[in-house]
UniProtKB/TrEMBL annotation:
Pfam families: DDE_3 (PF13358). InterPro entries: RNaseH_sf, Tc1-like_DDE_dom. This is Tc1-like transposase DDE domain-containing protein. One of its GO terms (molecular function) is nucleic acid binding. Transmembrane segments: none annotated. Residues 36-97 form the Tc1-like transposase DDE domain.
């Protein structure tokens, strides 16, 4: 997995671009896949915004496109489910404790 980024408030296309700028290449480098990775994203409006598409065109070697009405094939949902199960064993009573538990796991 790449870097875990915590998002405060609403996620929009410009926040998404900033996350990509700050994390995409670093995560690929940490994983040793900097020249071979493929970015998978669904058809969320922030992923398909023109500004995002232009940024990806110049900064991402390969983007996997999904059909417009595809089923929910997003593999990250399985990861979130597993993280939720694992973090239940922690005694979490604040947002900071949740962030710490998620980062540790």
């Amino acid at each position: 997995m790449g870097n875990l980024v915590f998002i405060e408030n609403y996620m929009h296309q410009y926040k998404y671009i900033n996350i990509l700028k700050e994390n995409l290449k670093i995560s690929a480098q940490k994983l040793g896949i900097q020249n071979t990775f493929k970015l998978y994203q669904d058809n969320d409006p922030k992923h398909t915004a023109l500004s995002v598409l232009l940024w990806l065109l110049h900064n991402c070697p390969k983007v996997i496109k999904t059909p417009p009405y595809s089923l929910d094939l997003n593999p990250i949902e399985n990861v979130w489910h597993e993280l939720e199960k694992i973090t239940r064993k922690h005694d979490i009573s604040s947002k900071e404790q949740r962030k710490t538990a998620l980062t540790e796991e």
